[in-house]
Amino acid sequence: MWVADNWNDYQVLDTSDGEKLELWGEYKLIRPDPQVIWQTPRGRIWDRPNAHYHRSSKGGGEWEFFDLPREWTIRYGDLSFRLKPFHFKHTGLFPEQAVNWDWFRALIEAESARRKVKVLNLFAYTGGATIAAAKAGAAVTHVDASKGMVTWAKENAAASGLADAPIRWLVDDCGKFVDREIRRGNTYDAIIMDPPSYGRGPKGEIWKIESSIYPFMTRAMKLLSDKPVFVLINSYTTGLQPAVLSYLLHTTLDGRFNGRVESSEIGLPVRSNGLILPCGAAGRWTPLR
């Protein structure tokens, strides 16, 4: 498993009975987690959280706030992220992705000594990967269908000292954007994608990852330059196994490039017991040099 264990401003303190207790900077949050199927005793550390997201038996849920600001900032190395709890239990950041940020930052920094690396970040959310890539020296195209998420990502970039970095911010449907870029003949040296499990396009188009991801990846890989640096795909709550991500990368890339594919679960360490909480999977492709 690839473990995001370099955090100072974030920790999973404990897990039990469908929930995880997290420390985000100085604030304790309790949030549901479907992976936590054990019912271990809860110590005093669970007392007095700053906020608690309660699942509803009818679906969804709501936040209960005790002592939490509307927004606050945490850091990961030289990256800063503005957090604010909103619908569907989220805070605006997936901290387990730090293990991927560290991986591709090293690749970008090594290649940037020779040329400017162009990165395409699809389904880019609040810009964690965009900011990490830009901080490493890349020129990034950030694409997400939500205007609110793109605005949030710009705020994170500014907080990280990247307000004037070469980042192209686009509010667009990722599938339509990829198709237009193919027609334009544009290419990128690296592609990152965090596809949702389910979604709807601006005209009601339905995205289901099980049926949509392969044709989407087949098209997206056409945007790779002749000297690609990496490809990264993430899978969160869909249940897709790491080997499935490996298979997707092999079948969409092997006909054109000779490279190395690896995949794994990604996770976060739990302070109370030293175990690792699984948080999805990731697949990585790099060319053979």
What would a concise description of this structure say?
The chain has six helices and 17 strands. Helices cover 25% and strands 33% of the residues.
Q: What gap, in angstroms, lies between the N and C termini?
A: 25 Å
Strand content: 25-35%
Helical element count? Answer: 6
Main-sheet strand order equals 1-16-17-15-12-9-10-11
Major β-sheet profile:
8 strands, mixed
Mean pLDDT, to the nearest integer, reads 94
* Global shape: globular
Overall helicity: 10-25%
Class inferred from helices and paired strands: alpha/beta
The SSE string, one letter per element, is EEEEEEEEHEHEHEHEEEHEHEE
Radius of gyration: 19 Å
Number of strands: 17
Low-confidence stretches: none
